Structure of Aryl-alcohol dehydrogenase-like predicted oxidoreductase:
Amino acid sequence: MTLRKRPLGRSGLQASEIGLGAWQLGARWEWSGPGEEESLRIVDEALKLGCTFVDTASPYADGRSEEYLGRALEGRRDQAVICTKFGFWAPGYQEDHSADRIEEAVELSLSRLRTDYLDVLLIHSPPFDLMDGTAVPHYQILQRLVDAGVVRAYGVADRASSADELRRILETTGSSVIETNINALEQGQLDVIAEAAEAGVGVIVRTPLASGWLSGKYDASSRFAGDDRDNWWSEEDIRRRAGAVEEFRTLVPEGLSMAQAALRFVLAQPEISTVIPGAKSVAQLRANVAAAEEPLPAETVDAIRAFGKTNPLR
Ligand SMILES: NC(=O)c1ccc[n+]([C@@H]2O[C@H](COP(=O)([O-])OP(=O)(O)OC[C@H]3O[C@@H](n4cnc5c(N)ncnc54)[C@H](OP(=O)(O)O)[C@@H]3O)[C@@H](O)[C@H]2O)c1
């Protein structure tokens, strides 16, 4: 099976409907992620399976995500559609979204990725005031990079994943691509992405597995020592997530893994161009890509939609 492609809005780019979230590549501290060898294997297998859309960012794994991608894609750059981001800097995720540093960041990404163009450049989780394209020069600079052929499409990866944020981005920035959080537990953005698609904006969906929760392998006693998730959730957050996941489990058709059901739920939304689960191993990548083989039954999609309206996380 090779993955289907969907248009990335009206950007002219096509994205595999399941893409590769590349934050995990080389991310030993953030995700107890794979080292270089396994990272190269993941990218190689992704291309073989037709999973050609790749989402990275310059600070991921202190720059190693982009570096490993560059190595893996050497000599076959044209087989992948690469999305990277500006606004946080390696090492250590230092935040600097200054407009006069965009070109410097692009040069660094091009060098790590061993390429001379970026398919998509997103402003990475900008603060709210940078989402008003009428007030800041960022989007004119991005458009100049598009005109120069260095970047093919630009947009914004939102920060808080709220409807207000996303509407402001759509209305003022000229973005042709946006990236936001959507999964069975966080469905608040579904209405806004319908507006994005209507306007011809490509939609990239991140965290489709709720950062691992929707695989069903965690419960209220889970702790994440050894990776960054240890800092993200209080005991109360973990308890609430565990409860929501147990409810979600009851909606999954027999014989289907929870992770695959979660991915199929996202794919069932026609407004979405690509969904980018992060993979820590070739096995996870293969399982994620296999989710695209069949659609989720319509009644299950409806049941998960109804669950999303009542669940406590959004
Ligand atoms: N602000 C931003 O721009 C931003 C923020 C977040 C993410 N992203 C992008 O979105 C991508 C996806 O989001 P995410 O990685 O944060 O969350 P995610 O895709 O919801 O979860 C990924 C995690 O789920 C687990 N997993 C993946 N496939 C699995 C499978 N088949 N079976 C069981 N477990 C599986 C793995 O962790 P364990 O095995 O350890 O559980 C993996 O690290 C990232 O890689 C990144 O490219 C961007």
Summary: The chain has a mean pLDDT of 96. The pocket of NAP is lined by residues 21-24, 31, 55, 57, 85, 124-125, 157, 179, 206-212, 215, 259, 276-280, 284, 287-288 (CB under 6 Å).
